[in-house]
Amino acid sequence: MHSFTYLFIFILLAFFQNAFSQNGQSDTLYEESGKMHITITPLYPGKEATLLKDIGNAFKIPQNAIKENIHGTLMLEFTIDTYGIASNGKIIKSLREDIDQAAIEMIKKLKRFAPAIMDNKKVPFTIKLPLKI
Length: 133
Hints:
The chain is an alpha+beta fold. It has a single domain (3-132), classed as 2-Layer Sandwich (Fusion Protein Consisting Of Minor Coat Protein, Glycine Rich Linker, Tola, And A His Tag, Chain: A, Domain 2), CATH 3.30.1150. It has 4 helices and 7 strands, in the order H-E-E-H-H-E-E-H-E-E-E. The chain is elongated, with a radius of gyration of 16 Å.
């Protein structure tokens, strides 16, 4: 594995751990009216360690970006649907068009998650993921 990839994975781990620390855990939410909702966040097979590995393997930074020594952070948003499939990827903060497209393609290669659950029903769940290269 290229040393650039190791650096990317290390940086990604630092950012992603905070963004997805509730991986598969339950939480209780209350509306202003006092209504209680029990939620369970999506869970990736193998949890965070496997997800980070799969992201590292699937996110192919374009060779031109590597040659040009492009660095920065892009913000990717995607949804885990009720079937656990990562979809609807969009860039919230762009880094560069070719890198942005590589990030969108990466989410299509992720394994199926256990979907989020609210009040015993599967629900879509949106994730914002910073990717620093």
